[in-house]
Amino acid sequence: NAGVTQTPKFQVLKTGQSMTLQCAQDMNHNSMYWYRQDPGMGLRLIYYSASEGTTDKGEVPNGYNVSRLNKREFSLRLESAAPSQTSVYFCASSASPDRGLTTEAFFGQGTRLTVV
Amino acid sequence: AQSVTQPDIHITVSEGASLELRCNYSYGATPYLFWYVQSPGQGLQLLLKYFSGDTLVQGIKGFEAEFKRSQSSFNLRKPSVHWSDAAEYFCAEGNSGYSTLTFGKGTMLLVSP
């Protein structure tokens, strides 16, 4: 009963390095999301994909790119990491829109990224 | 734009005491409202949700929330807090036609002996 699986769980990057965070869900959900969580800021949406083949910017997209590889997988790429991207990253998925409703999101366990 | 306000950054409650965490949403039409809990180092777990119907909704772990349209509020309650309830709690809002949720900044619950 995996749900949403993110890899890696921890990562340390040097400024300017690139990396891709991987996310996969096994719930046949339409929508997938990438959030970042910073102290006192709550969760902020980076990008989302409402269906296979589509992606849209969220609140804080600068410095990131995404790929909806198929219905199961949604990856987040940092092309040139900066210290401001030090954060905890969460992938989530939901059945939204489901008959017009925004249904609940299911979250992965998070990736703790430090950029030095 | 939607916004969700959780006025309390931290709350400390004695074990066994009652709890109420506040949440105010901004969207005027029928909102879809959620409460999530996050234990340290973990992802977010759904506690309960409100779409329509009865304004008092029951969730997991003994939590409930009441939707009050007149106050644009969706407060989370528990009659008797356990030490294991210490965590961060997030209120979130979605609405018809959108696929995304908007989260509040969270309330950290501390439980004292």
Key terms for this structure?
heterodimer; A: about 120 residues; mainly beta; seven-stranded mixed beta sheet; about 50% strand; B: mainly beta; six-stranded mixed beta sheet; four-stranded antiparallel beta sheet
Structural account:
The termini of chain A are far apart. Chain A is mainly β. In chain A, the strands form two sheets. In chain A, strands 2, 4, 5, 6, 9, 10 and 11 form a seven-stranded mixed beta sheet that branches. In chain A, strands 1-3-8-7 form a four-stranded antiparallel beta sheet, with no helix packed on it. Chain A contains no helices and eleven strands. The model of chain A has no long low-confidence stretch (mean pLDDT 92). Helices cover 0% and strands 51% of the residues of chain A. In chain A, strand 5 (42-49) and strand 6 (56-57) form a beta hairpin. The radius of gyration of chain A is 14 Å and the shape is globular. Chain B is 0% helix and 51% strand. Chain B has no helices and twelve strands. Chain B has strands spanning 4-5, 10-14, 19-21, 24-25, 31-38, 44-50, 56-58, 64-68, 73-78, 87-95, 102-103, 107-112. In chain B, strands 2, 5, 6, 10, 11 and 12 form a six-stranded mixed beta sheet that branches. In chain B, strands 3-9-8-7 form a four-stranded antiparallel beta sheet, with no helix packed on it. Chain B has a two-stranded antiparallel ribbon with strand order 1-4. Chain B is mostly beta strands and 113 residues long. Classes of the chains: A mainly beta (116), B mainly beta (113). At the A-B interface, strand 4, strand 5, strand 9 and strand 10 of A face strand 5, strand 6 and strand 10 of B.
